[in-house]
Amino acid sequence: MPSTTAISVRNVSKKFRLFASPKERLMEALHPFRKQYHREFWALRDVSFEVGRGETVGILGRNGSGKSTLLQIICSVMRATQGEAHVNGRISALLELGAGFNPEFTGRDNVILNGAIMGFSRKEMLRKLSEIEAFADIGEFFDQPVKTYSSGMFVRVAFAAAIHVDPDILVVDEALAVGDARFQRKCLLQIEKIRTSGAAVIFVSHSLETITSLCSRAIILENGIILADGEPKIVAEQYLAILFSESKGEPNLDITNERVVGSSANQGIQINQLRDEQFCDVDPSAWAGSLSERFGYNRHEVRTTNGCAMILDYLVAGNGCDDISGVWSGNAIAILVKVHFSADVNQPIIGFELKTDKGVTIAGSNTFLAKTQLQPAARGDTKIYRIEFNTPLNEGDYFVDLGVAEYDGSPGGYVLDVRRSMMHLMIRRKQEKPFFNGIVDIGFRFTEVDC
To answer: How crowded is residue 308: how many other Cβ atoms within 10 Å of its Cβ?
Structure first.
């Protein structure tokens, strides 16, 4: 292995044997003709990649995609069924909660034990203890048995112990998710410090913000295989496309996500050029499957409908393109909504609401509030409505509710079909644009006044 390579994973596969019950496990073990009662489950399939010194690699993937299994093989906690993983240097790992700590020992004793496992003498660990205790910052609980700790306290001690043993390779598996925001921030700063010292870092997290800000590279694991490996922001977009895709099994990113490389205005925004021409087709035979193939469609949406009208499809237009998954902050955007009416609606109302990924409403309106009167809709009609708005928003992930109602004298009308969090929208910031805190850019201007 070259000296510049910290981790080398070559064609690693991991197979588990799954039994329907403990009884079948025993029957297979005792069967005179070695009859198989188990079924095979491949947690990893032919995984290969390298991590260089000073590189921070983030690993993304849904639960059960093989992330923890991969890290355990890298850390030699588990053996691969096929292939091999090599590390070049001292590795320090923060894997599943509780791993490597004796619950009967105090935090102090566990830190010393962890150091001994890493090859440090008791004398060396005692010199580091004050630093570790200060970083963990759990007060008198440092000298209490670990079994009395909360999950947050445990992570504080475990992370402090992991980073203060001068690792050449640091592996962190989602453990920081249970820490408070202040401690997470302190940990991320420490990880960056370790990286700049020349150590390699592998970081597993479900936080796309953390992956894109901390890592120099990102990998997507799905069903035990690597789907993407590259620049964090691009990989994060592909991961979101997987999360909100209706399709089961392995998504075909080459078909559903086409990246426009010839136009700098659209670079970094996903565009689907396969279904634009079908959106205006009102033939019922063309409706099937169109919505599930839209970028950003959230299959976990919450829907309320009475069947008198149905939102069939949507199309997001912006940056001069159709069917996009995101826009640059500050750009105008339009959402086209296709609605089919199963009953006569004299005064239809179309509305939408824009929310953060935490569910906080940013803005919402409808045609009644906007004093826009729509034409009556007859039973059997299929109509397309256009909603336009600006996006002076901070970079991040947002969700859109879409709804159709009938005017009944109230501002919201009588609900016919509401699809909450139906659409996921990504807002990205161009590098030349100034930063700001919060959600909405209110147009800050700073000047010095001469007295």
So the answer is: 19
Cα dihedral 202/110/181/71 (nearest 10): 20
Q: For residue 358, with 0-12 CB atoms within 10 Å meaning exposed, 13-18 middle and 19 or more buried, which class applies?
A: exposed
Q: Which residues of 22-39 are buried (b: 16+ CB within 10 A; e: fewer)?
A: eeeeeeeeeeeeeeebee
CB 202 within 8 A of CB 59: yes
pLDDT tens-digit profile of 318-329? 767 777 777 888
What is each CA distance from 255 to 219, 298, 391, in whole angstroms?
19, 19, 28
Instruction: Output 17-20 pairs: Cβ under 8 A, ≥24 positions apart.
Output: 17/41
Give the whole-angstrom CA distance, residue 307 versus residue 336: 21
Q: Please check whether residue 346 is in contact with residue 359, taking contact to mean a CB–CB distance below 8 angstroms.
A: no
Count Cβ neighbours within 10 Å for each residue of 93-119 and write b for 16 or more, e otherwise. bbbeeeebbeeeebbbebbbbbbeebe
Cβ atoms < 10 Å from Cβ of 225: 16
- pLDDT tens-digit series, residues 400-430: 999 999 998 888 889 999 998 898 888 888 8
Alpha carbons 33 and 159: distance in angstroms, whole number: 49
CA distance 366 to 320: 25
Instruction: Please say whether the beta carbons of 217 and 55 come within 8 A.
Output: yes
Q: Give the domains, in start order, of the chain with CATH numbers.
A: 5-243 (3.40.50.300), 260-428 (2.70.50.60)
The model scores a pTM over 0.70: no
What is the C-alpha to C-alpha distance for residues 225 and 227, in angstroms, rounded to an integer?
A: 6
User: Are 205 and 58 a contacting pair, CB within 8 Å?
Assistant: yes
Q: How far apart are CA 317 and CA 334, in angstroms?
A: 5
Which helix (H) or strand (E) is 311 found in, with range? strand 309-318
Q: Phi and psi (nearest 5°) for 179? A: -80, 160
